[in-house]
Amino acid sequence: MLKKLALFGCVGIALAVPSVSQAKTYYWMSSGSPADPVWTYFLAGAEQWAKDTGNTVKTSFYSGDVPSQQEAERAAIAAKADGIATTSPDPGSLVEIAKEAKAANIPMINFNMRDPTAPFLAYVGGDNVVFGQNWAQYLVDHHLVKAGDFVWMPVEVPGATYGVQEAQGASTVFKPLGIKWEITDATLDQADAISRMSDYLTANHRKINAIMGLGDLVTGSIKRVFDQVGIKPGSIPVIGWGNTLDTTQEVLDGYVVAAQWQDPQATSYVALSLAAMAAGGVRPGFNVITGALYDKTKAGYYAKLLSTK
Amino acid sequence: MKNRFLQGLLAKAELGPLILLIVEIAVFASLNSDFISILNISNTLAFTVELGLIALAMTLLMTSGEFDLSVGSVFGFSPVLMWTLANSGATSLVVAFFVAILIAALIGLINGWFVTRLKIPSFLVTLGMLLVVRGLALFMTNGFPQRTWSASGAWLPRILAGEFYIGDFRVYASIFWFLGSAIVLGYVLTRTKIGNWIQASGGNPNAARARGVNVNRTKAGLFVLCSVMSALAGTISSIRTSAANPDSGTGYELEVIAMVVIGGTALTGGRGTIVGTVLGVLILRIMRNGIVFVGVPGLAYNIFIGAIILGMMALHSGLERRHNAGA
Predict the structure, then answer these.
(1) Nearest to B246 among A35, A183, A229 (CB)
(2) Which CATH architecture has domain A128-261?
(3) Cβ of residue B138 closer than 8 Å to a chain A Cβ
């Protein structure tokens, strides 16, 4: 409820700001990849905001390339941006830049990938450590894994902040129970990901008690992998990201027991709204935490949300 | 008589890759019996033949002394174009497929034109084309993957990537495209005038020109073939995986070149072998599959892949030297 109120308030402010001021220029900078399915929804949120408010939003992706992103952020500051909404490619990588933006009086909002070490005005998005913890707890609470079991965690980009944080969160639940896990490299290429995941599942299906998809692409590939290997839906419980239509359908069909919704479009929209609000003189003194874990009963709702794109 | 047979066998460029493949299969099978299960063989072949289709065309292009780094981008772009056209209702799936193939041929032609007419090295031309085509796919789709579910029931997807069972063994139609292409291209390379032109263009282009070979046209034709085969492979893959992502095929170009070289085709041109490439394709894909079965830690996967490729190249080079010394 609080989350909804916060979202409602922010959107309201965002719509009000442009009506009393001239169109401004904002920068939306992502450390993700333009071809990552979930980032397309984040991008759609930013584009929708530009359309709704009449402001200009300059969007860009840096695919984990920290120096390029830093250079672009500095360029946006030099161009006297009215506001910047940015993800953090690595914790600590934007500390100096956030200071420079602050000195130039440019509001900088952090979204999706949190970095508490940098002096951003606010953060909008999920908490990956908490998500990982929740997924592990869900598996334990629903008796899908028990002490001594083994959980397989495929991820598209091993070592990337999101997967590391999620595994870190999961470990707080698994370690005390003696549950073991393994993270494997699936890659961002879907055909290759399906091939690698099928290989792993064929070789290890006897020891895998549950699967935790650390990214959207891997969780959204579960149906194809199960079908390829001949694993029946539900015979190995799967939990993980759920920001794509593939995953909502997998939840509905019983391949995935629960999936994490992150409000990607709303996250971008609210981050830009907060930047606009700050540019108008009202500084946000709060963060907006998004995200919900959904199961079969609610998957239809999220499928409908995603189908609008 | 026996000696002559052995000498003939040793003189074959494909002997090294064949030995490597047999050793590889024997090692993996001895470490995990599931490796040679029907399910695993079927799974391995599914993706193998898709990369294999590109490798076959790349063999001919590399034999002519050029190579194409844009194949991975075309692999991703063509199905995205096809499904965008079909899903938007602009045209039927069949017409969309042929449009995608035609555009791929045009991409190959542009590569060929830049390389042969403007005399720019194929490394630079196709690197530029890689970025252009990948960017086009992203821009066209705004990054969103194209839905391919509507394919079920249509005849074209069934012909390209339909599946059927022989007992418990699942076979994808794509394997017939791969085998058919291997036979046709192998025949062209070794038994026809065009094959001679290709080898002459790569071995000594000036001498080939002096003997009346149209080197430019030969190379341009091979760039077109490479792009068309990449588009076909991408389309087959998109149907099999029910996904047409604009970034599909990222990094395939290097894997394909490695397959061709491991198979025995010279990186410098002039000598190529389709049988060797088929073996090279199997060696690399089976290796990727096998190290999962022997339980290599997930995050150490690439260390093993890289180390095994280096080891295999060293072994291949040793066998090659022995072969050349004996020839």
Answers:
(1) A35
(2) 3-Layer(aba) Sandwich (3.40)
(3) yes
Nearest to B248 among A33, A40, A190 (CB): A190
In 3-state terms, what secondary structure has residue A239? Answer: strand
Task: Answer for the pair B219, B68: CB distance below 8 angstroms, yes or no.
Answer: no
Q: CA A46: distance to chain centroid?
A: 15
Reduce the DSSP state of residue A116 to 3 states and report it: coil
Question: A190 and chain B: CB distance < 8 Å anywhere?
Answer: yes
- CATH superfamily assigned to domain A2-126+262-290: Response regulator (3.40.50.2300)
What digits encode the pLDDT tens for the residues A110-140? 999 888 889 999 999 998 999 999 999 999 9
Q: Where does CATH 3.40.50.2300 sit in chain A?
A: 2-126+262-290, 128-261
Domain boundaries, chain B: 13-326
Please tell me the pTM assigned to this model: 0.78
3-state secondary structure of A154: strand
- Give the one of A158, A190, A196 whose C-beta lies nearest to B245's C-beta: A190
Contacts of A43 in chain B (CB under 8 A): 142-143
> Tens digits of per-residue pLDDT, B222-256?
999 999 999 999 999 988 887 788 888 888 999 89
Distance of CA B285 to the CA centre of its chain: 12
The CATH T-level fold of domain B13-326 is ABC transporter involved in vitamin B12 uptake, BtuC (1.10.3470)
